[in-house]
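Exam revision sheet. Question 4 asks you to relate a sequence to its structure. Input first:
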Amino acid sequence: MPSTSIGGKSSLAEGKMEIDAVKDKRSVEEIHSYACPSNERDECTSSPSSLLKHRAKEARDEKNKGKQNEEEEPTLIELQEAIISTVTTKINARADQTDKAVQFNTIQIEHLKKSLEFCHQEVMDLKHQNTALKDQCSILKQKAEELEKKMDEADRYSRRLNLRRP
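Answer key, structure tokens:
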């Protein structure tokens, strides 16, 4: 029953669709349960054909949901604007946080600067005191050496004259 199309090709697509339809029907029949629940009229409404109708209705409902979702979805421009506004707000928030952190650090640095200047001044004062004490120490060493020399000379003098000390 193969037929040829205008281009001279056999319509394998039609034959393939028929085979697919038979497979689908067979799979529906294999899934079909013959223990159907009875309704008020004691009729079984769960036949393979009713299952096909039910699945076709479900497929249509899903397509309609897809269309509704597509209608509800924002356009590309709206998405871009939303993304840009979100990113802008986040960047601004982080910039504000950074500004606050910079201000806090600036205050801390000023306090550290004052403290460092105070410590520097104390160190300079201690250096001046140290140089003054070094000068005083050298003067006292010279005096001590002079006194020792005088004492040694007095000792030698007393030994030379054999004088006793009282």
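Marking note for examiners. The helical segments are 12-31, 48-72, 76-160.
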